[in-house]
Each structure stands twice: as C-alpha cells, then as structure tokens.
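Re-run with default settings, no changes from the original entry. Doing this only to confirm the output is reproducible before filing.
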Amino acid sequence: MKKQIKLHDKNIDYTLRISKRAKRMRLTVYCDGSFVVTKPQDLNLSIVEKFIIQKSNWVLLKLEYFKQFKGGLFKNDHENYLQNKEEALAFVNKRIKYFNKKYNFKFNNVNIKNQKTRWGSCSKKGNLNFNYKILLLPKNIADYIIVHELCHLKEFNHSQKFWNLVAEAIPNYLDIKKELQVKGLYLQ
C-alpha cells in the first residue's frame, strides 16, 4: 500500500508491506529510489511512522545516495540474468571449492537465481543458492556471502557457533557486514 510521510520538511513516498512472517520492522531503500517498509501484521501504523521518523537521517541519506544511479546499479533484468548466469555459476563454484577446502561440507546443488531480496540462501536439503548479481560485488563481499551460506550447511542458524565458523575463513566478517549495511547494497 502506498503511503507518504514528512521527513525534515520533505514528503517521502513509501510502500508499506504487511508480512505474516516478519518478526520486526524493516526499512529498505532500493537503488531505483523506492522506499519500502515491511512490518509485522499486528504492528500499529503509528509505531511504524515513529520508527521511520527515528531513522529519517538514514532514509534520506540512502535516497540521496541512490539518486546518482537512477536505477542503473542493479536492474532486475531477465536478459542480464540470462547473460550472466553461467559466469556467476563458474565464479561461485570456484569460490566454494576454495573455501570448502577448509570446511569440507557436503552439499547438493549450487544454483544461480535472479532474486529481488537475497544475495544467497541455503536450503535444509543442502542446496546453495546465489543471486547472479554477486558478480557485481567487491570480491571481499562476494566471498563473505559465499562463506555465510556454506556455514549454514553445518549451523542452520545465526548462533555464535555459526559466526565462529564464518570467522574461520573471513576473520573480518563484522566489518564486511557493516559495509553491506552502510552501503545498502539492495537488489532492486
């Protein structure tokens, strides 16, 4: 549902998504200039607006930052996906092979997808999935995403055991996580 809120004397349009699965609120500014707020089903709209106002500096900064790209940083383009899918698969397989020398985890398939909201995922069946746009990322961030999903093969959670596994291959994973948050590398 389309909404509008006033932040620092500017009217900002946003899309409000209500999710049955969401446990907390999420603010996302995409590089096409869209701003999306996802909220749990039972959360009151007044709390949502207070949260947006509280995070207004971040929202405005991200909106301003992505204006320079005019939607061209990560286009959700099926043709781009088809052109880059094989290269992305070769890249991901090479990096998995490199990092899995350390872990020796068993997995089933590696898939390259054209996802809107995820860089990677790991299924309970041991399938590793990655977004083809991983090719566009700096190598340290791409490696972090690959190791993150690999480690879910052993720890299917985000416990301290999981993060300790990640740290074995990516000791500075906290810096990379922070870089992802600061840069706001979202996929739309």
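The helical segments are 45-54, 56-67, 78-103, 139-151, 160-169, 173-183. The chain has two domains: 2-67, 78-183.
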